[in-house]
Structure formats: C-alpha cells, structure tokens
Amino acid sequence: xxxxxxxxxxxxxxxxxxxxxxxxxxxxxxxxxxxxxxxxxxxxxxxxxxxxxxxxxxxxxxxxxxxxxxxxxxxxxxxxxxxxxxxxxxxxxxxxxxxxxxxxxxxxxxxxxxxxxxxxxxxxxxxxxxxxxxxxxxxxxxxxxxxxxxxxxxxxxxxxxxxxxxxxxxxxxxxxxxxxxxxxxxxxxxxxxxxxxxxxxxxxxxxxxxxxxxxxxxxxxxxxxxxxxxxxxxxxxxxxxxxxxxxxxxxxxxxxxxxxxxxxxxxxxxxxxxxxxxxxxxxxxxxxxxxxxxxxxxxxxxxxxxxxxxxxxxxxxxxxxxxxxxxxxxxxxxxxxxxxxxxxxxxxxxxxxxxxxxxxxxxxxxxxxxxxxxxxxxxxxxxxxxxxxxxxxxxxxxxxxxxxxxxxxxxxxxxxxxxxxxxxxxxxxxxxxx
Length: 434
Known about the structure:
35% helix; mainly alpha
C-alpha cells in the first residue's frame, strides 16, 4: 500500500515519517484490542482460597445493576458521541470572535473554526479516547490473569462438591469446584477493576474545551467537568454492590484508569493549567530535532520550572518613554499574554482567534504548520526588531492575568523591556512609583 503524501487536514505535502507516525497510533490501538482479546482467552492463575472465607461467599448476581454492555456504552460510546457532537457542531457557536462573511458581511454561525480544523480536533480527540481505553483494558486484563484473585462471589461460582473441606491447612483450590467452567474462570479475575480510563479522559477533554482552570471561576464549568467522573464512580460502585469486585480492587483499578486517561489526554492536548490554549489539540507532530527552550522571560513561578507560561520578549517589547509611569503599577493584559507555542516559528505564535484574509481563524491544523513542523534551534531567539516588525495587538479577553494583584517588586513578575532586560524588576525601570 502506498503511503499518502499528505494528511486529510493539510494541503501541503508531508514527509512519510510524519504520516506513518499517526498511522502507527491507530496500529497501536488495534494491537491493544487484539491483545485484550487474546488475554481474555487465557486461563488466569487460580489462587488458593478458604471455604470459610466470608469475603468470597457473596451470592452470584445473575442480573447486574449495570451490565457490561451498558458500562461500555457509558465509558466509551457516550464520550465518543460527545467528542463528535461538540467538535463538529457545538465548537465555535458561542465564540466572541466569529469571522464575517466576505459577501454578506454577516458573522458566520459556525464560529472561527474551519472544517479541516474540526476534523483535526476530531482525529486527536478520538485517538486519545481510544488510547485511554485500549491501554487500560490491556493492563487490567494482564494483571487479572497474572494475579488470579478470587471474586467476592467465588464460592457460589465454584459450587464445591458435597462434603468438601479445605485440602490444605485453611486453604482449598479449584479442584473441588463443580460449577460452570466459564463462570469459574472469570471468578479468578477480581483485581483490578477498570472503569475510569475513558471517563477520566472525557473529563479532561471537556475541561480543556471549557478552559475550566482560568481565573474566572465559573462554577457551571466545574460541574460539567465532574459529570463524567461521577458516572465513572457510580459504575465502579455498582461492581462492588453486585459482588463482582472487592473495594480494594475498585480503588486501585480506578487509580490505574485515572493514570491511563491522563497519559492518553496529554499525548494530544495541552494541560488544563494552560487555559489560554483553549484545549486545542497539538499541531502536526514534530520530528527530527530536540526541543529547545526559548530565550523568553517567564510570567510567574520559579526560574527552573519549565512548565511556567513563556512569553516572547520581542513581541512584548515596550517603549518606556511612551508609557506613563502609572502603567507600571499594574499588569497590562496585552503585555503578558503567553504565546501559544514558543518553540517554533511565528506561525505557532498566532492566537487561536487570529484570522486570515478570508476571515477564518487559525488553529493547530493550519497548512502553514507543515512548513515549519520541525523544531529549529534558530528559533530560540525572536525576530530581530526593525523596519517591518511590529508587536501584534493581543485581545485582552483571552488573557488570564490577575487584575487584583499589584505589579510591584514583591510579586516576582519581571518585565521583558529593552531597558529593564529579562532579569531586571519593574522597580528599576524609569518612572516607576513603588
């Protein structure tokens, strides 16, 4: 089969290794599904048990409160429908930056995102969901087979022969069982329980789209983000109520599912602690060079924290004579907006709502990304200021800087001004009033 020269979301040609990398993501997911099917046919290890152990003498629940098919719909089908519906229909409907139609002059109802932008977001969203579910099921099934822990209803599944007693001092094994072999086989797969991975990923994905960790504190966003976690918890609790798992199995399995959901989300989306990125998926995958930290001043935090929001000092350069001294006493939204991606050329430094000549907003699936998808060491410095260069005008509505904290020497905020330098506090700048 011939490798396509470009992705469906780009008009420019891509190197074969970039296309292969995304195909390989789906191959890994399919391999995990196949691995789970194989592990499901393997006979698990049978731990010894005691007929007098009351923790495994619960009755077998023929009718579960939440059958497995319903649990899969809740943890996989519902998130999939949500991602598709939000990405293709809802995303952009309530945007304050809707572009205008060139002919009619009316604002576009679908918002600033083009169809190829939506398809790219859909691709990354589905990839993350499938990855979270796939790795969680493979890991849990492998651990179940290796551990062979009895379920709480094992004695009822076992149906010991009449007159059976513990063969060893206080212990028996599966040789005394006369029950259904299929039920008995599944009876030794109690630990761990997997029900959190898909819904934890959904919660993170929804939190990113709603930029829930900004400084506006809108409670309805937090409520929506918690709904998938509540659903996951109810499914997990139902497994205890049906005597399918011990509480320890559910707690540790939930922790494993949280880890799988978080890892899968971070493969394709930025962290929730960077709300200015609006939860948009990462651009087309980079290859061939090492990531280089830009030579930028940091907004807040310790100097050694690489996760601190970075800025482009060349784009934020201020002219002290033109700025009144009163402006140094409070943070200005347009001066401290972190760039969307400080690791590459200017095409990555556009804000999510910058518009092109057709009135369309740029996103991570922009064609220009394929021109500069390699990380370059030359981009560690911003463009040389001079003729033809000017600082872009940022939209203050997209800034998440506290307006209640005064900008003084005690706040630890440094200005990237040409006179102050990247390490000179604002109190040393001319005209500053402490």
